[in-house]
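Students often ask why inverse folding is considered easier than folding. One informal answer: many sequences map to the same fold, so there is more than one right answer. In these notes we will look at a single instance of the problem. The structure comes first.
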C-alpha cells in the first residue's frame, strides 16, 4: 500500500475536493482507503456512502485496522479528533503503526489533514510515501511554502526515515479570469519554480455541485463538468504515475 498525504496548514485551499476526487479516481481500479483527519468532517460528509464504522481517531489510540467496505473505504472524522492534540506524542507513531498494519488490505491510502501542523498532520507525514500540497493563489507567500517543506523534512529527520516524495504545490480554486490571480500565480511560479505541480484545479461551480451530490465531477452531465473532470483526472494521472500506482 502506498500513502498519499494532502496537506496545507492554511484552510480554504480545496483539500476536501481534491481528496474526495482522489478517492473516487483511485477506487476505479485500486483498493482505496481514505482517512479524514479534519474534525470539520466535510470529507466524511462528501464520501458518506463509503464509511467504515472505524473512526480515524481510533488509529491514534492503538494500532488499528480499518476493514474494507468496498473498493473505496473511508475512516470517518469526528470531533474526538481534537483530543489527539492533547495526547502524548507517541500517538504519532501509533498512527504510523495503524497504517502499516493495513499494508495488505489496500493498494493506496489517501489522507486528508487538518489545516494546522499538529499531531494529526505529523502522524500523516510519518506515514507518507508522497505529499501533495494544494495552495490558494490569493494571499499565499513563499514563506508559507518554506514552512510546509520544513515540516515535511522535520518529521522525516526526527523519526529517522526517508523523506516522502514531494509531488508539488497544486494551485487550487484558481480563478483564471482574475487578472490579480494571474499576476499572483506568475509571481508564485517565479518564486517556487520546480516546486509547482504540473497542473492545476480551477475555480469551478462543477466541483461544488459534485461535493453536494456526493459524486465525482466526471460523472455529471454538461460541458463544464466534462472540462472539470478532464482537469482533475489529469492531476491524478500524474500523481499515479509519480507514485508508480499501477492497476
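Output (designed amino acids):
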Amino acid at each position: 500500500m502506498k500513502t498519499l498525504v494532502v496537506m496545507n496548514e492554511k484552510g480554504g485551499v480545496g483539500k476536501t475536493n481534491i481528496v474526495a476526487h482522489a478517492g473516487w479516481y483511485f477506487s476505479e481500479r485500486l483498493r482505496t482507503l481514505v482517512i479524514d483527519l479534519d474534525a470539520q468532517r466535510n470529507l466524511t460528509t462528501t464520501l458518506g456512502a463509503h464509511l467504515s464504522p472505524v473512526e480515524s481517531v481510533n488509529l491514534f489510540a492503538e494500532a488499528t485496522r480499518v476493514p474494507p467496505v468496498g473498493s473505496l473505504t473511508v475512516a470517518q472524522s469526528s470531533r474526538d479528533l481534537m483530543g489527539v492534540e492533547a495526547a502524548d506524542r507517541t500517538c504519532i507513531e501509533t498512527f504510523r503503526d495503524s497504517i502499516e498494519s493495513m499494508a495488505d488490505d489496500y493498494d493506496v491510502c489517501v489522507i486528508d489533514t487538518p489545516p494546522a501542523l499538529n499531531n494529526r498532520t505529523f502522524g500523516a507525514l510519518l506515514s507518507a510515501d508522497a505529499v501533495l500540497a494544494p495552495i490558494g493563489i490569493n494571499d499565499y507567500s513563499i514563506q508559507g511554502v518554506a514552512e510546509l517543506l520544513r515540516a515535511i523534512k522535520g518529521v522525516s529527520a526526527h523519526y529517522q526515515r526517508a523523506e516522502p516524495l514531494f509531488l508539488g504545490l497544486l494551485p487550487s480554486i484558481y480563478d483564471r479570469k482574475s487578472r490579480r490571480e494571474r499576476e499572483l500565480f506568475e509571481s508564485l511560479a517565479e518564486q517556487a519554480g520546480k516546486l509547482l505541480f504540473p497542473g492545476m484545479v480551477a475555480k469551478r461551480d462543477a466541483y461544488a455541485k459534485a461535493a453536494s451530490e456526493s459524486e465525482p465531477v466526471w460523472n455529471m452531465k454538461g460541458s463544464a463538468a466534462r472540462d472539470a473532470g478532464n482537469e482533475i483526472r489529469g492531476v491524478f494521472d500524474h500523481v499515479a504515475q509519480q507514485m508508480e500506482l499501477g492497476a
